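User: Predict the structure for this protein chain, please.
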Amino acid sequence: MSSDPRPKILVLTPSPLLDEIMSPRAIKVLEGLGQVEWNRTGRDLSQDEVMERIKGCSAVFTSWGPPLFDDELLDAAYELKIIGHAAGSIKRFIPPSVFERGVVVTHAANTIAASVAEWTLGMMLMGLRRVYIVDRKMQAGEAWPIYKELEPTGLYGKRVGIIGASHVGRALIRLLRPFDTDTIVYDPYLDVEDAAEMGVSRVNALDELMATSDVITNHAPTTEATRGMLDTRLWGLVKDGALFVNTARADAADYDALLVELQSGRFTAALDVFPEEPLANDSPFRSLPNVILSPHAAGLTIESKLRLGETVAEEFARYFNGELLHHQVTSNMLFKMA
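Assistant: Here is the predicted structure, written as structure tokens:
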């Protein structure tokens, strides 16, 4: 039996994923806080294995591939005080009963959000300036494409419609400020005062956002209320020459209806997510000249992944030092989370 009085911290994430999200600094912080039990198996632990290892642990570190914290697991976790998720959504494995038992939950969604927002901004610039078309032409052997024929436009002063004042949506708003955009936001949970503080305007209907925006970018969480909300009618409202960017989830958009509009050539899209992934080799999206495709990669950089572990380690340090957490998730946040 260990004589170390410090709290026990169970890290469920195995290598090689752990090596990608855990910097030396994060390791140092965790090991300075308590007795750390690492997952050395090279795989995700089974529910039974987690139940055995979690006994007596005060903190659990998770990332992609976590177990379901159901009542049976929570009964075994009799000392559990905090769960830190080094990834985004916690909804699939954290049921309301976790909060009911007084367990604190925190996550690294903001860390991923910064990286996704950066990618989104890049897609806006690339899409408006037609960089992807020039690249394709030059890669295909066209020595010096006549760029002005592509009618490139800039982001400065454009109306940008943001669907969802989520972590990513808010991070993007900050990145847009130097471009002096007319930024409007559709989000039923965003109040006028909060919108004004961020320097944006709230719109009450998606119709207005879809019909008037030069750039439309989706950052809505996947919930029953958002599933399929971008439908045929709304796609028909999009301005000719507009740009649609999706770095959230595909569920909010009717991709069949989107495909029809894109095949008409009326507007452009930059798509990082799809209803089925990986995108099929014979998908018609692959052959459209007005579409930029990426493989669900918006949140992934070497630096952003390493910050995931650091974010959770720092939250654990705040918790055990009696400080306020920066990224705590509460039970009343669950209904509007992805």
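The longest strand covers residues 159-163.
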